[in-house]
Amino acid sequence: MKRILVAGITGAGKTTMAQALAARLQLPFHEMDALKFTGPQWASNPDLHQQVSTISATPGWVFDSFGYPEVRDLLWTHADTVVWLDYPRSVIMPRILRRSLRRTLLRERIFGGNVETLTGWFRSDHPAWWAWSQHGARRSEIDRRTQDPHFAPLHVIRFRSPRRADAWLRTLSGAGSGTPRADG
């Protein structure tokens, strides 16, 4: 486990898991949204592909993402492990609602200095609406990729509950750690 993608739907806890994995395995952590959104009005980074290409060519990293379309195959081709946080909507939705509500009310600055706004809650691309509407499609796409022979060397670790993911994470220690099996 040296090049790790933490995949799942918005609100699954990908960033939290990826940061914890990176710390335990002593690997660099990369936040995909921070790389993608580099300016106000959610401006996209024109150099995203080049930056991700450079990072993915290094010997070790952890990304908190399934990958945006323009870099998805690049990441999946270079990764050796996918940690899939495959949680039901009943877990995801309270998390995403709390996070977005906090960000909106406190005007927290995120990715490129942007903030979630009250009017943003009424857009179809708001994280809460997106997580609800895309849950099944994202799950199917991750499942398809984990079965795709093109990505056959990948080690897939799938969690269906945060409790199991947390328990697995506690079993990891230090660089070069083995990869305990999990599918629960």
From TrEMBL:
This is AAA family ATPase. Pfam families: AAA (PF00004). GO terms for molecular function: ATP binding; ATP hydrolysis activity. Residues 4-46 form the ATPase AAA-type core domain. The lineage of its organism: Bacteria, Bacillati, Actinomycetota, Actinomycetes, Kitasatosporales.
